[in-house]
Amino acid sequence: xxxxxxxxxxxxxxxxxxxFSMIMLSLILTSALxxxxxxxxxxxxxxxxxxxxxxxxxxxxxxxxxxxxxKKISGTNTLTDLGGLLxxxxxxxxxxxxxxxxxxxxxxxxxYKLIFYDKTPALITSCSALAYTATxxxxxxxxxxxxxxxxxxxxxxxxLGISPDGILDWNSIAVSDDGxxxxxxxxxxxxxxxxxxxxxxxxFPSSGTFxxxxxxWNNIPIAMSGDGTYQxxxxxxxxxxxxxxxxxxxxxxxxxxxxxxxxxxxxxxxxYQTAVGNGWSAGSIYVSSNYGVSGSWxxxxxxxxxxSVAVSRGDGTYQxAVVTGGYIxxxxxxxxxxxxxxxxxxxxxxxxxxDGTYQxAVxxxxxxDNIYRSGDHGNSWQAVSSSPATEWLxxxxxxxxxYQTAxxxxxxxxxxxxxxxxxxxTQRNNIGGxxxxxxxxxxxxxxxxVIGGSGMQINTNSCR
Length: 464
Prior knowledge:
Layout: H1 2-70, H2 79-86, E1 90-94, E2 97-103, E3 111-117, E4 136-143, E5 146-153, E6 160-162, E7 170-175, E8 182-188, E9 191-197, E10 206-211, E11 222-224, E12 231-234, E13 241-244, E14 252-254, E15 261-266, E16 273-288, E17 297-311, E18 319-331, E19 339-352, E20 359-363, E21 371-374, E22 382-383, E23 392-397, E24 404-408, E25 414-418, E26 426-430, E27 436-440, E28 447-451, E29 455-459
Antiparallel strand pairs: 1-2, 2-3, 3-4, 4-5, 6-29, 7-8, 8-9, 9-10, 11-12, 12-13, 13-14, 15-16, 16-17, 17-18, 18-19, 19-20, 20-21, 21-22, 23-24, 24-25, 25-26, 27-28, 28-29
């Protein structure tokens, strides 16, 4: 009896071990299956992530290629032409958008599609649209049926010639901070006509006529506030200043100050204005702290051959004026007092950042040290060692001072640009020779130039 019971106990123990083993095997199998499933999922995710990364890289490469080619195009190139430059397979309209399709390096596995937006911003809907009008591009890149999209702003260095009323002989131009308002002065026989655009230069109706005295020097500089509301025209022909407070729709004359004006500038709000005269050792500086209205202009400094003046756009505190065959003069009190700086040179033009920190002055002589820059509100000046040896006539810069453009009177009107606060310069375009006037929007994305005898040029999407 005792032996039977012992056998029964032993059998029960064997059964328990078997059940436990089965449970453990089930757990191990379940764990193995879970690990295997996780590995499969991880592998799939890894492959999907890799395809997504590849798709992104395709899209990003397509954007970079398009941006590169857009910087090189001419004003007549269409989106179809751009597609050819990219080596794309086609440009066609898909879902209402002009679409360039192609492959990176001819690899069919790396397909992309490009669509474009203009400055409004609206989709560009025709492949015959001029490529320079694109201000933004969106690329969709595909790799192994996985797509990613990238979009980015683009620019072009296309300068377009325009000739309101067929006029080619221009004197000066000014651009508002957003680039929508432009005012330009043209020569027309014995009179000067000012043209005002309120749509970025798309249309340029005339606004008024200014007579000039026979045999007068006849330079007509112009200055504009940040939003275009206030404008001042300095008539070198009759010595008067003409002011507008309605965006150039009408101008009121200020009592003649007897100057042959060479340059004018103002703060962004239009309150502080400065004009300088070039009377060959008889010119003066005049400043206004009341929007240029009659009776607000006060004469400053000794008579000199003043050639250019720049006013800090921020609040007009900092001002710099340069003298042809003389020195640089700076003011830090809205033009009330001036201090001589720099070297005696044949200075022709000066520009400054909105806060006055960065300033650039150029020289109209064929020398190797003909661009000088300052990074301390004009208190000290250093020659730019890499400046091209040419005769400079005009310079303009963005509000932050980073982007600058200078015009050379030599070589039929070459433009040079700097994107490092005037430290280094590279040739930009040849837009015709003659007397230059340059102006730029606050970001320098929109720039304009007028050339005596050669017309007007506008860059509405500058690479700066």
